[in-house]
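User: Just a sanity check before I run the rest of the batch. Below are the structure tokens for the first item. I only need the designed sequence back.
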């Protein structure tokens, strides 16, 4: 997902339509992101962890281009990295491991600025223990999360009664119940079920069915 001038995540496919800065940071939290979908006129940097980068390089040779051009910035798990956006705005990105052991690496990411704390979720994991047991992430949750952004591309345009869609919402519900953000937002503006938005502390600000 790209980050706009305010540090808000934007779907890779919306780079042109959202008129993002050509140097907009690209945050990768899942190794299965399709690197070939990155717009050719984009000139920014990729932000991810070493484990994600290695896995992408293993399955997608296109990543080597960005590594060779020194356009990959390594994020350290549980450590905050300052990123300068357009107009000298600054955000702090902290990645947390959402899988462990031999499981494919996935991240849940905290993005903070002077006004807001955001959590970004690209792909939902089957495990909550890495979230629950991470003292740094727990502290951020206790301090309060303003917005959780989630990648809703999987459910976009699908039958809401599809079993896979219901499973997706069930996983998201467990995460939102744990985090209790003020607001929930999908990258593609999919409307989440009401039982999920009711876990937010300001559910009236979230569209739901």
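Assistant: Here's the designed sequence for the first item:
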């Amino acid at each position: 997902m790209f980050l706009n001038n305010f540090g808000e995540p934007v779907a890779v496919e919306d780079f042109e339509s959202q008129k993002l800065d050509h140097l907009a940071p690209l945050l990768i939290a899942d190794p299965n992101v399709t690197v070939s979908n990155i717009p050719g006129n984009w000139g920014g940097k990729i932000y991810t962890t070493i484990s994600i980068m290695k896995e992408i390089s293993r399955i997608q040779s296109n990543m080597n281009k960005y590594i060779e051009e020194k356009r990959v910035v390594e994020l350290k798990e549980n450590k905050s990295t300052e990123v300068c956006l357009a107009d000298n705005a600054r955000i702090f990105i902290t990645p947390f491991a959402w899988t462990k052991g031999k499981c494919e690496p996935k991240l849940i990411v905290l993005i903070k600025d002077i006004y807001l704390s955001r959590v970004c979720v690209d792909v939902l994991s089957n495990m909550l223990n890495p979230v629950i047991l991470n003292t740094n992430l727990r502290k951020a949750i206790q301090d309060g999360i303003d917005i959780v952004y989630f990648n809703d591309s999987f459910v976009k345009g699908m039958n809401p009664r599809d079993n896979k869609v219901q499973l997706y919402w069930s996983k998201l519900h467990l995460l939102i119940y744990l985090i209790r953000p003020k607001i929930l937002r999908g990258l593609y503006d999919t409307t989440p079920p009401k039982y999920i938005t009711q876990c937010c502390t300001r559910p009236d600000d979230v569209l739901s069915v």
